[in-house]
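Q: Predict the assembly, please.
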Amino acid sequence: MNKYNILENRFPGRRAALKREILEQALYCFNELGVEATTIDAIKARCDTSVGAIYHHFGNKEGILSALFFAALDDQRQHLEQELAGANSLREAVFCIIGSYLDWVVANPEWARFLYQARSPVAKGPFQEELKDRNIQNYRKLKDQLLGFSKGDVKIVQPFEILFSLIIGPSENYCRAWLSGRVKGSPQEYRGEFAESAWRSLQW
Amino acid sequence: MNKYNILENRFPGRRAALKREILEQALYCFNELGVEATTIDAIKARCDTSVGAIYHHFGNKEGILSALFFAALDDQRQHLEQELAGANSLREAVFCIIGSYLDWVVANPEWARFLYQARSPVAKGPFQEELKDRNIQNYRKLKDQLLGFSKGDVKIVQPFEILFSLIIGPSENYCRAWLSGRVKGSPQEYRGEFAESAWRSLQW
DNA sequence: TCTTTTGCAGAATATTATTCTGTTTTGTTT
DNA sequence: AAACAAAACAGAATAATATTCTGCAAAAGA
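A: Predicted assembly structure:
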């Protein structure tokens, strides 16, 4: 796999070429101007297409937003699962989760930026149920996977509810700051620090 | 101070009554429908006022959003500084920061919810410079305050850039989850866990 | 080749944000 | 208190934007 492409991966083939183009330009606009300030006309202009085509493919603005959002979410998720498959202890799992997250954000900064800013709109929009379902599914799956390990010799903070936040919270917060330019060091530089810190934080 | 009110505090007096009312109803609409889906008409209807009045006070939709956003941000900030004033060590400071954050979110859930979802729009909009400035100011101030302590006997993770993320990341992540209903336990319940965990996480 | 489906274009329409003009209320000065 | 100025407010008019609709073209299947 030379250089994987999230859009090519999700909407493959020649016939979906314009669809991908629209999404790519929409992603650019959303990130550059913000979700609300992005107009259909602006997207149309960057694709050299028609409103008809856009509405044919996505129904409405919310449809474009959601298509992008779920494409990014699924890709990030897939990346996590690949990494996590190799973990053999809770400690390794924590390192995988954090490493995978940081890697993905650094590899796909534009998608990551979009993911952060699009979550709220999508959570309110017509696809809110789909988002909720996925959250629940993912939560359960990851929970089971982590609980499978925790019979080790270390004592872990209770309850389980707060575990995810302890693991991913710092990395997430830092990535946001990095993407917005508030901090300069690449998240990957601090891979080790975030992983070790998280591991320390959740031991009694 | 019996029951402080963010709006009353920021826009005091009889003449600002409608202004406060508009903001209150706008807050409700933004949280209920989402920022983009909230129309001026919807806000107007809930206030029983006119578009003229709304535009007189805020200029445009972005103006309403920003007024709400900075009101919330400043209140949260003020709360933090009050708490932090009593800290006498780095450990105490960390506990103050986290405690203050959790308290504020639980005391003002609607405002907190809004703060999360409005950050991106404001960061893109016409007040982006003002937001950047405040971020820089606050960052410096807090940095100096923390560095004033760190000559203690404990070794702290480097560099400073990642420190804030380690401290506030987990709490922030959990509060978001709580406000969106993904987890049930009140953030205040886990006050101790978040503070202790954060403290462990940033020690060598 | 014929037929059906899908992709696309652009004018027409509907919705929403914003402006503008006039009126009323409030505060200030004399 | 009267006169003036400034701020608050109302609502019609306008502008910007999202969405629909109708028709045509390309592609796929029979």
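Residues 15, 18, 49-53, 56-57 of chain A lie near DNA strand C (CB under 10 Å from a C1'). The domain at 6-201 of chain A is CATH 1.10.357.10 (Tetracycline Repressor; domain 2).
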